[in-house]
Inverse folding.
């Protein structure tokens, strides 16, 4: 019989891969040379690998068979290690790893409030609006403009080919919501595997825009737009709406679209 690792085993694998990826990325300069095309290809591969590994970490934290207090303990330990890593100025990727762990455990804790799939639908539809406002016009944008050093504590960096400094950042809230949706999908017997795969594809596309499209430089992409809509797309058949609920949800989608358009116009 072949050994098939459980979530704890896969979590260990993805954690090791995370550390290895950060250890490898600064050394790529001697491999890829000075060719812009080679650099772009290496950076694309690094970005996609980083997204896949981080989602793998969150996916298997969500898959751990822990009760609320076990997840709370994981969050507290991760938060304490994050503070310690920042205070002692340890290798920055270690702080990033603690942040991802802590955010994932927090999201898993929050997932316990959802008792049926239908409750997750309005949350998934409204969360992009909140995130879009905070990133495009609200507090996150102000932080990016006036205190970018805060990102070192509240966001995980995407490794850059051939250098130590991260090329882009993903916020704590994005990992928290990914963990929340995946843990809820597991517990409510929705399609958690398809959800994780959808997150991987959409977040990879979003990060490619951030890394390669200069129009997003310094302003960021609201991650919850792709996370929330990706969750809905991956689990559409699990939402059992009455006619009235479907009408309310349709109205909510229209309202969100109008508000997003207004925010874009103001921006």
């Amino acid at each position: 019989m072949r050994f098939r690792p459980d979530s704890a085993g896969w979590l260990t694998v993805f954690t090791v891969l995370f550390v290895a990826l950060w250890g490898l990325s600064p050394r790529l300069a001697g491999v890829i040379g000075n060719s812009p095309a080679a650099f772009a290809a290496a950076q694309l591969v690094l970005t996609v690998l980083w997204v896949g590994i981080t989602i793998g970490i969150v996916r298997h934290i969500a898959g751990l068979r822990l009760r609320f207090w076990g997840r709370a303990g994981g969050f507290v330990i991760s938060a304490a290690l994050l503070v310690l890593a920042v205070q002692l100025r340890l290798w920055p990727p270690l702080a990033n790893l603690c942040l991802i762990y802590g955010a994932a455990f927090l999201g898993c804790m929050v997932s316990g409030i959802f008792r049926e799939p239908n409750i997750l639908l309005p949350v998934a539809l409204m969360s992009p609006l909140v995130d879009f406002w905070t990133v495009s016009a609200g507090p996150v944008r102000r932080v990016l403009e006036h205190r970018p050093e805060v990102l070192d504590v509240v966001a995980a960096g995407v490794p850059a080919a051939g250098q130590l400094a991260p090329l882009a950042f993903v916020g704590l809230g994005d990992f928290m919501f990914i963990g929340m949706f995946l843990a809820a999908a597991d517990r409510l017997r929705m399609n958690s595997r398809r959800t994780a795969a959808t997150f991987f594809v959409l977040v990879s596309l979003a990060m490619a825009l951030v890394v390669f499209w200069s129009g997003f430089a310094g302003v960021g992409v609201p991650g919850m737009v792709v996370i929330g809509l990706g969750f809905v797309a991956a689990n559409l058949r699990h939402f059992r709406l009455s006619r009235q609920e479907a009408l309310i949800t349709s109205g909510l989608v229209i309202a969100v679209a109008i508000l997003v358009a207004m925010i874009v116009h103001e921006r």
Observations:
- The chain has one domain: 7-266.
